[in-house]
Amino acid sequence: NAGVTQTPKFRVLKTGQSMTLLCAQDMNHEYMYWYRQDPGMGLRLIHYSVGEGTTAKGEVPDGYNVSRLKKQNFLLGLESAAPSQTSVYFCASSYRQDNEKLFFGSGTQLSVL
Amino acid sequence: AQTVTQSQPEMSVQEAETVTLSCTYDTSESDYYLFWYKQPPSRQMILVIRQEAYKQQNATENRFSVNFQKAAKSFSLKISDSQLGDAAMYFCAYALYYGGATNKLIFGTGTLLAVQP
Questions:
Q1: What one-character DSSP code corresponds to residue A25?
Q2: Out of B4, B45, B102, whose CB is closest to A100?
Q3: Average pLDDT for A14-26
Q4: Of A57, A62, A81, A97, whose CB has the highest number of CB atoms within 10 Å?
């Protein structure tokens, strides 16, 4: 009964370092999303995917890359981390036919020093 | 562009009382969905209730109900018989509906609800 699992849950990076956040879902969902949450700004969509092998830009894609090589996994990469990327990152997934019902992971707290 | 506005950064309610959270949105579209999500301290986002814009009847889920005013572009959430477990951040969200599916969600900035025992 895992649902959407994000790893890691916490991470501290130095400016310029790279890292990958992993999102895994076991519900056979077609759609997957990456959001960032900042105080006073709600959730903003970074990138999303409507199926294996596909990705698309969201509202704030700059500085991030994503990949969806397997249906159950959606990776978010930061090639050169910046302090402005300090945030809480949420992964979500949904069925194609009912894609307004998002299932969220528990988030990753990322700090870039 | 569509926007979602939650004008109440924080709200407080006594246990067993009723509280209403406000949300307004801006869109020129006619087919869309509106949602309320709950985010407790665990950070897990939980769907509370959703409303299809073409339905005039307000959605209800147990103690949670909405007041959907399409002409006014208003979508408030009423929580009745508030419980300590209702304490959380609440997000209003909008999604455009076309082609038989909804587009990506646009979230408001959230309202932090405290429940006093």
A1: E
A2: B102
A3: 97
A4: A81
